Amino acid sequence: MAQDWREEVKTEKPYRKPTGQRRGLVIVNTGDGKGKTTAALGLVLRAVGRGYTARIFQFMKHAGAAFGEHRALERLGVEIEGLGDGFSWTSKDLERSAALAYAGWRRAREAVLGGEYFLVVLDEITYPIRYGWVPLEEVLETLRQRPKKVTVVLTGRGAPEPLIELADTVSEVRKLKHAFDAGVPAQRGIEH
């Protein structure tokens, strides 16, 4: 007679219940794979669905962008602000790009420190940090000084090691395969 499947079910949990207090987190989504921003937007949906406030700053998207996520978030009442002038590798004026990034950082910093939002997303902030347009130490100090209830999600490739060390949660999205490498261009509803 075959053993009953219920005898094989383990009753022990594979983890211990955390004993710490709930608080705002620093979450970093980095790596060369697709999905870092998408994961951050998923957290925005979860927070807004629970009645919390969220705000998104996109460091590489230009002001007035109307990508799919902008349209959907506008319907949900979530503020999303493009701070840049597009992708830096197509910029014809890198000094202007740097000035826009830093001015945007100052607005984002105010939102993080102001405590009005439960969740603040700093999308693609690793690029202006790596280019030297936004000082890493200012970002780290802002994260340390933020109100305890505020969660900040930072996205982008090549997150610097000091940011990874400061973060509570870090996910690396690794590319195994991407349609773009096979010649498929970015598509509405998928990449933008």
Automatic annotation (TrEMBL):
Region (Disordered): 1-22
This enzyme's EC code(s): 2.5.1.17
Keywords, alphabetical: Transferase
Bias kind Basic and acidic residues: ranges: 1-15
GO molecular function: ATP binding; corrinoid adenosyltransferase activity
Transmembrane stretches, start-end: none
Classification via Gene3D superfamilies: P-loop containing nucleotide triphosphate hydrolases
Gene Ontology biological process terms in this record: cobalamin biosynthetic process
Enzyme type, top EC level: transferase
Protein name: Cob(I)yrinic acid a,c-diamide adenosyltransferase
Species assigned in the record: Calidithermus roseus
Gene name of the encoded protein: btuR
